Amino acid sequence: FVFYDAIRSRGYFKSIMVDNENLALVIKKLRYYARFIVVCLLLNFRKLVEELVAELKDLVAEYQQAFQPADVQEWEMVLQEITAFLQADMPLTITNRPP
Question: Is 11's pLDDT higher than 90?
Answer without folding.
Answer: no
